[in-house]
Design brief:
186 residues, mainly alpha, three-stranded antiparallel beta sheet, two-stranded antiparallel ribbon, 5 helices, 5 strands
């Protein structure tokens, strides 16, 4: 049945002009190559930034200072202070070393978005929201480790090495899955 028209211009069914046509995925080999290539380049670049102002900016300013500020908001009696790559506090603090700032998970998310065939708008919105999510989750991880170290040192090691990294990666993977399977981002 032909579509109704006006002046030889066919009308589209309701909603047809509001949706993006489905994109076919990249071939698996290309998806893997893009993912591994982007992740590898980001990891290499981060390694090259070791002991530079970039590393200090990411660790000291963007990771330690907000975490120490949040400790002060939650428990002012802890008297936590950011000192370089550490949260110092009487009774125990926390050192934030290279690898504890969440960059690897951010790099995984960037590589994942680079490797999928999505529209640029959806890709950029999804990536921006996802990077914010990684930052917030990593800050929550640091707070949990800070309080675990101070209150339950036996719990600290398992949280630091296994539980919290797995939770962070799983949460970001679920977020990425949700972005891929959502009809459109508002």
């Amino acid at each position: 049945m032909p579509l109704p028209n006006h002046n030889d211009v066919p009308y589209l069914p309701d909603g047809a002009c509001e949706t993006e046509p489905p994109r076919s995925p990249y071939p698996l080999w290309l998806t893997l190559a893009i993912f591994l290539g982007v992740f590898g380049v980001l990891q290499w670049a981060w390694g090259e930034a070791r002991d530079t102002w970039v590393e200090r900016l990411v660790i000291h300013q963007a990771t330690v200072k907000p975490a120490a500020a949040m400790v002060q908001v939650l428990t002012p009696e802890a008297n936590a202070k950011p000192v370089a790559a550490s949260i110092k506090a009487p009774g125990g603090g926390l050192n934030i070393l290279n690898g504890c700032e969440g960059t690897e998970v951010m790099f995984l998310l960037i590589a994942a978005f680079a490797a999928v065939n999505l529209g640029w708008r959806r890709k950029l919105i999804g990536l921006a929201l996802g990077l914010g999510l990684v930052f917030l989750l990593n800050q929550a991880r640091i707070l949990a480790l800070f309080y675990a170290f101070r209150n339950e040192r036996g719990l600290f090691d398992i949280l630091h090495t296994t539980v919290l990294p797995a939770v962070l990666i799983a949460a970001v993977a679920l977020y990425f899955y949700a972005v891929l399977h959502r009809s459109r981002l508002a």
